[in-house]
UniProtKB/TrEMBL annotation:
It comes from the Eukaryota. Pfam families: Caleosin. This is Caleosin. InterPro entries: Caleosin-related. Belongs to the caleosin family. It comes from Zizania palustris (Northern wild rice).
Length: 270
């Protein structure tokens, strides 16, 4: 099998094309055969001999060569590398991933403390709270989500695709082990602890919730739950001191922080 065109017309104006299955060129003049340089596995698997160059039309020749070049470039660019952390955005994300993705300001799939700080500032947290919060959040979640082969572990990056590994104990159980919402657990928060209003929590009722969620000797879990809920209550309670059910739901499904940032931007423009 060869990569020649029509038998009676030599390719005198086209550069020779080396065939992966033959040691011949498409010209009629014998030339010394050389083995092709090694190619990546995906490129080497391409059947270059399937390109049929037509000598009757130089545009057709050009199209065939362009097609070959495109296939080579595509194979070289997408072949066999390690998955990127940003790939998390190319498929359906869990509610827990959506919850933290707000803080991934450059959308590369990794959240560094500086991005957590920027995100907290964007939703109305002060400088001190944002700084402490960034160190606390990344310090607690980063080591749990970093892949084994990752570099720069000292920078405390949070990998969104592994955020389910960062779940702490003594929580409400609204997220399952894979980061999906458990709606029954969400409803139980208000059925059990919303005594003043069925659709909101007061500061005292929130304290009751945190105490009910505590697991014995799970001090890290106690601290994590306390910090999360207290910051949420501080930023999102209404003027009467109520944290509304819709607000809490929006926290869990990942939509609240985006809306808070948009509202703050709109307020600044007025």
């Amino acid at each position: 099998m060869s990569c020649k065109g029509e038998a009676n017309t030599p390719f005198t104006n086209v550069f020779p094309v080396h065939c992966a299955r033959s040691e011949q060129y498409t010209t009629n003049t014998p030339v010394e055969s050389h083995p092709p340089p090694p190619l990546p596995r995906r490129i080497a698997s391409l059947d270059l001999c399937s390109l049929q160059l037509s000598s009757s039309s130089s545009p057709a020749v050009g199209r065939s060569i362009s097609s070959m070049a495109s296939k080579l470039a595509e194979a070289a660019g997408g072949g066999g590398g390690e998955p990127s952390p940003a790939d998390v955005y190319s498929s359906e994300m869990t509610p827990l991933q959506n919850h933290v993705a707000f803080f991934d300001r450059n959308k590369d799939g990794i959240i560094y403390p500086s991005e957590t700080y920027e995100g907290l500032r964007a939703i109305g947290a002060g400088v001190a709270l944002s700084a402490v919060g960034a160190l606390f959040i990344n310090g607690g979640l980063g080591p749990k989500t970093i892949p084994e082969n990752a570099k720069a572990r000292f920078k405390l990056p949070i990998y969104i695709n592994n955020i389910h590994k960062g779940k702490h104990g003594s929580d409400s159980g609204v997220y399952d082990e894979n980061g999906r919402l458990v709606h029954e657990k969400f409803e139980q928060i208000f059925k059990k602890h919303a005594h003043t209003r069925p659709d909101a929590l007061t500061g005292q009722e929130l304290k009751e919730l945190l105490q009910a969620n505590r697991e014995p000797k799970d001090f890290k879990g106690w601290l994590g739950g306390f910090a999360e809920w207290k910051v949420l209550f501080y930023l999102c309670k209404d003027k009467d001191g109520f944290l509304h059910k819709d607000t809490v739901r929006a926290v869990y499904d990942g939509s609240l922080f985006v809306k808070m940032e948009q509202d703050r931007r709109s307020a600044k423009k007025k």
